[in-house]
Amino acid sequence: MKTVVIGVIGADVHAVGNKIIDYVLSNNGYNVVNIGVLSTQEDFIDAAIETDAEAILVSSLYGHGEMDCKFMKEKCEEAGIGHVKLYVGGNIVVGKQDFNEVQQTFFNMGFDRVYGPGQKIEDALEDLREDIGS
Amino acid sequence: MKPYLLVDFGSTYTKLTAVDLENEYIIGTAKAPTTVETNVLEGYDRAFKHLMDDHPGISEIAGVSACSSAAGGLKMAAIGLVEELTVEAAKRACLGAGAIVDAVYTHHMTKREAKALNDKEIDIILLAGGTDGGNKECIIHNAKKLKEINVKVPIIVAGNKDAYDEIEEIFEDSTLEYYFVANVMPKLKKLDVKEAKEQIRRIFIDQIIDAKGISKAAEKIGDIIMPTPEAVLKAAELLSNGYEDEEGYGELIVIDIGGATTDVHTIGEGFPKRTEVILKGLEEPFAKRTVEGDLGMRYSARALLSLVSNYEFKKYFEVDDSCDHNIEESLNRRSRQVDFLPETKDEEEFDKAIAKICCDVSVSRHVGHVEVVHTPLGDMYYQTGKDLTGIQYVIGTGGVLINHKEAKRILNQVNKKSNKALELRPTNPSILIDRSYILAAMGLLSQKYPKIALKLMKQYLM
Question: Which residues does B297 contact at the CB level (< 8 Å), separation at least 6?
Fold first, then answer.
């Protein structure tokens, strides 16, 4: 069974989406390690190391995602898990910005998949199957 | 009179406690210096003679249980993957079993680290790493390293179970002694130290006692059933939980200030008490023990110099203490001369200040902390560790506290402090002192007669 780490990053307490992601991925055969809300980058990384996760799915709904995700890829590399896929999704930037630009910003930060507001978890599920298998 | 005898082979003294099981009272206690270098029974016999001299009514002994922390206690090495996760879980398993964690290794062990481990005087190695189904490459790497250096002491493997077959293949054709138990952290942040603790105790009884030259005692009085700190933890647990219709005291703290270390035991869940507080980090054990190797009255007195500045140190003196203490000299003297006993009022006051620091700092390190997070929904708090604000009782034990007339004043240091607002310390708990020094003995007694042990503790802790 493939393991993925999910959670809500930063000072963000939005728990509903997190529960939906947990539910959908678990039902589709993934071992979901849910570190919950108010999680730091280090929480994600430590969890991924101990559980040998193949992907980290970062959620953020309160607009500060860009700040909270800065240097996360670098930290993963530093911690020896640079190969782990990094996904981010939600309301990840301040205000309404062009999503293509937002996506590019996060790609440049080392994220492999970037999802905007309103996007369905099923899309991520499909990508996950493609990236790490099921 | 046929008393039940509890024996504690301590690092300095061999202590006996005789209990009348029928009438449920403590007949008496006696002690004599521990004699590990020659024959540990000499000290025991001497203490026993003291007991008989004081209580000639004792005709024969109904039974004996013993614990030991002699010859340096039980020393362990904890190995894991991430420092805050499996390494911490491994450390907690060792501490909960009454061991001293003398070496800690994280991530992949290097040759240098493995060699250093081999050079240390370690009794047991606890090898953890990875959740079940998680990372197994690291624990396998570390198992190989342990084999390469051909460690002489038992290894308890308590990591990712998926790696056990491969580890067994690595260890199989070697002289290594190894045991497999359940993972100390089977799921992320879940702590499961029961099996590991039991295995530690089994090895302690079967081998460590022998290696430390205490086996002669075992021949005469039966198995030494646990390390002394574990006996204290068991006593604390019983006193907290109660037994059958005999009620316990609820959540409590036991503080043991010794010559070399300060041990803090807490019994209680320590969950957040408010909804806006979110728990972080590894799950806390219900009965938690921490050991501070740099906080002690004598051996580690010098370490206080680097821990507390002179300015801070002075705050621990009583306001009416007019003596101009030479802090550095007084601390050095105590660590040079470990059997130092205060003779003057000033020396006593200085000892009191050391004890206060040991108490204050060890509690700071033991209790949980909160941290404010400003979220769009208002301020939230992270809690790491146990919330001990609701603790009802604090119990003091160990040489300095049981003999000090102002022991309660020393233990008042556990209380909430304005300069440590983010620490989840108790607020005005009742303070009890283990005046007759019976906690370890009651932990031993609790293995066979829990109800009597509980009643005696309630009677003798004051």
Answer: B257, B258, B259, B334, B351, B354, B355, B358, B399, B400
